[in-house]
Amino acid sequence: MYEAFFGLRERPFDLTPDPRFLLMTPTHKEALANLQYGLTARKGLTVLIGEAGAGKTTLIRAALEQWQRFGHRVAHLSNPTLTRGEFFEYLAGAFDMSREAAVSKARFLSEFLTMVTERHNTGGITGIVIDEAQSLSDELLEEVRLLINAESSSEKLFQVLLVGQPELGDRLSQPALRQIKQRIALRCTLATLDVRQVASYISGRIQTAGGLAGQVFTREAVVAIHGYSHGIPRVINVICDNAMLAGFAANVRPVNTSIIEEICREFAIERYAAFAPLEPVRHAAVSPAAPLKLAPPVGSDDQRQDEQAEAPHAAAAGGLFHQYIASGKRRFSFF
Known about the structure:
The chain is α/β, with parallel strands linked by helices. Helix content is 46%, strand content 13%. The chain folds into two domains: 24-190, Rossmann fold (3-Layer(aba) Sandwich), CATH 3.40.50.300; 193-334, Helicase, Ruva Protein, domain 3 (Orthogonal Bundle), CATH 1.10.8.60. The strands form two sheets. The chain has a five-stranded parallel sheet with strand order 2-3-4-1-5, sandwiched between helices. Strands 6-8-7 form a three-stranded antiparallel sheet. Helix 1 crosses helix 2, helix 10 (219-229) runs parallel beside helix 12 (257-266) and helix 11 (233-250) packs across helix 12.
């Protein structure tokens, strides 16, 4: 609806996770590396924790695609609110076990041990990724722990990746679950995005859709989006998508702070009260590899000197996005 108004080929903030929009911040890279290493190094139990909407499921899908290309057998359980019987029924179906294994725990364990041992002997890896793991009952967490106990003389035969919200960490710290906590070989936390990463995220999504971020959102609007979204990609998507629709309806381009605030009031999204101060980095090199650069305070002599020095670089960039984002007395430029 609003694509042509903002010069886009497609909607840049569709909520369905898309590998093209996999934002690889250092934290995301670390989380993906932990997922991959936890499985392929046969660590047994890996835990990934992150806020709702931080991108955990998107990382899981990216990791699953890579594992499948290498022939690894990894089940993905995205709704773990199951009874014990349903859990074993799901695993039996995911690993192509017999019907008897789906209804008999004894038969399941016999076939399961045979399967993981045979795959291990041929170099294959067998595992399961449990998304929304904070919803697992204590009963199922205990069953997961017992499945991890399947091992050879030197390696775990079955790999488990628990992925969940911060409540998962709280639960694993309970004394009753100390046994499974002791078996965690890798643990990683997926942090939310800071203002630099939010700016790069929005810019990258818009550029992928064929637009120029400077023609879609003002610098103040981007800072406001960071404040209201708390740096959570899913919330960023909701705010941006609705703000662009509202901007189209009001014939306002680029989208300004007033529209962002209006959208957040409608969705009852509260602004993050405190912003951590960012130290200025002056005279940083202008490079597409460095998408966001802190500039000196607005109105200073250093600012004017930097603008004059940057002008030839901006002209030589040949259309690379040059947009300033205000935050207090400091601002940012990203290319």
